[in-house]
Amino acid sequence: RAASRMLSVKCSVFDFAGAIQGAYDDSGATFDAATGERLSASDLTDDYAALKALVRERIMADTVSGSYFDVEPFAEGVLDGDQWYLDEDGLTVFANIYEIGTGGVPLQLR
Length: 110
Prior knowledge:
alpha+beta
């Protein structure tokens, strides 16, 4: 999708400083391929409010069963941060490990 106009990447970091468990952090970044400017999710659409509503709706539906917590605040603000990226299937938003559940939670939105 729009591969000639945008470059989107996901970066995963694992930091182990000797404690029982390491620290994990994932982040996404999307750039204008021509200018190198970092794009926000609002740059992807003419109707950012509708995109945010759709993402919120899908996250809430996909996490209705299972051991999730604090899903609603995550769903409300996920596009405002760096927990999304684009790939050949469309928009992916993700929660970092332990953010809304016991593991990392990828949510594919097409």
